[in-house]
């Protein structure tokens, strides 16, 4: 997996961004990306209709908006929730795309959440679901776009950067498969929300899919160092370890009190590059993602200047 996944992109430049001008139905408004999008819509003065299954979770988010309740397994409830929709964003897993296509009015503009997991060489249900969802959108001929984010960081409770920081707090060294040389290109949640907004504002009449990612790929070991520094932690030395033994040890994290869980498959994915060309994202959406240093400073509530290294190891 590397830069040049442009087979999914369509040619053409950005079109002028205007107001959406109609309420946006946000399916999965209680998800991390859904809640962040609702906040971004509110900040932009755009109306939205939260569509979700758990009103208590919605209330806990302290967001304005009258929710419509729909479990995605119930076609009628979803159809009722989307009955008057002209713009629908789905922040739920892409496997639900057929349900959303079936429930949304045929002319509604769709913005769906995919994942760059769809490019992984390692087969799993998550990647399979994203590929199936994307295929369903592209085959539908409907006006919609599936955005495939790379690793998203920066939201409350996310299990990427925050979990890594929690791990680094406990580990004296960082055992990484292949020494952590494989590439990652994380995108901050605020940029994901900006991409959703831009996609909603762009007129479209055919389906497409687009990768959204941070500005530059970097080796996982450098990402780890950046996270440690931004979190104000000692930078651990990186210990190169073959992926096989690490995969066997990963399930033991479940047994260690206070230790964030790591799955064996996550270790395997750390051995493949996840680097992407964001030229099409810039051209189609007009979004310039923030540098990692800025996103990490936002994540850990620091100013950009206040992210000193306590230790220069690794
Ligand atoms: N996290 C990342 O780094 C990353 C990267 C790329 C793509 N993505 C994609 O981003 C999306 C959200 O990811 P996340 O990890 O942040 O997940 P999440 O917060 O757990 O969100 C999942 C959402 O799906 C809803 N949902 C699940 N089953 C449902 C059902 N039967 N009926 C109604 N709603 C249902 C959940 O509702 P409840 O709130 O009621 O549980 C929740 O709102 C996923 O599509 C994921 O593939 C994430």
Description:
- With 314 residues, the protein is an alpha/beta fold.
- It folds into two domains: 6-154 and 187-212, 3-Layer(aba) Sandwich (Rossmann fold), CATH 3.40.50.720; 161-183 and 217-274 and 290-299.
- It is 35% helix and 16% strand.
- It has twelve helices and 13 strands.
- It has helices spanning 32-43, 55-61, 75-81, 97-103, 125-140, 161-170, 189-201, 220-230, 243-249, 264-269, 279-285, 292-299; strands at 24-27, 48-52, 68-69, 87-90, 109-113, 144-149, 152-153, 173-177, 183-184, 187-188, 208-212, 218-219, 237-241.
- Helix 5 (125-140) links the parallel strand 5 and strand 6.
- Helix 3 crosses helix 4.
- The two termini are 26 Å apart.
- NADP nicotinamide-adenine-dinucleotide phosphate binds next to helix 1.
- Residues 28, 30-34, 52-54, 57, 71-73, 91-94, 113, 115, 149, 151-152, 160 line the site of NADP nicotinamide-adenine-dinucleotide phosphate (NAP).
């Amino acid at each position: 997996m590397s830069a040049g996944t442009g087979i999914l992109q369509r040619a053409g430049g950005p079109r002028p961004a205007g107001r959406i001008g109609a309420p946006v139905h946000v399916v999965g408004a209680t998800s991390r990306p859904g809640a962040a999008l609702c906040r971004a819509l509110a900040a932009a003065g755009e109306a939205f209709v939260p569509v979700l299954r758990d009103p208590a979770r919605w209330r806990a988010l302290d967001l304005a908006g009258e929710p419509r309740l729909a479990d995605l397994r119930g076609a009628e409830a979803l159809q009722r929730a989307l009955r008057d929709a002209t713009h629908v964003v789905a922040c739920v897993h892409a496997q639900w795309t057929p349900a959303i296509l079936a429930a949304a009015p045929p002319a509604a503009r769709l913005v769906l959440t995919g994942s760059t997991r769809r490019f992984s060489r390692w087969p799993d249900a998550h990647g399979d679901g994203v590929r199936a969802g994307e295929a369903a959108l592209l085959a539908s001929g409907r006006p919609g776009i599936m955005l495939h984010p790379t690793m998203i960081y920066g939201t409350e409770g996310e299990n990427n950067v925050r979990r890594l920081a929690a791990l680094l707090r406990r580990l004296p060294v960082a055992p990484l498969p292949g020494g952590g040389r494989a590439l990652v290109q994380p995108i901050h949640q605020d940029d994901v929300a900006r991409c959703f907004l831009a996609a909603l504002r762009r007129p479209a009449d055919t389906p497409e899919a687009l990768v959204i990612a941070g500005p530059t790929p970097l080796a996982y070991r450098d990402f780890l160092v950046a996270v440690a520094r931004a979190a104000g932690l000692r930078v651990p030395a990186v210990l190169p370890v073959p992926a096989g033994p690490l995969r066997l040890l990963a399930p033991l994290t479940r047994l260690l009190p206070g230790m964030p869980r790591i799955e064996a498959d996550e270790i395997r994915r750390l051995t493949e590059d996840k680097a992407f060309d964001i030229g099409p994202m810039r051209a189609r959406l007009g979004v310039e993602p923030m540098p990692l240093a800025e996103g990490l400073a936002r994540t850990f509530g620091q100013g950009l200047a206040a992210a000193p290294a306590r230790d220069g190891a690794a």
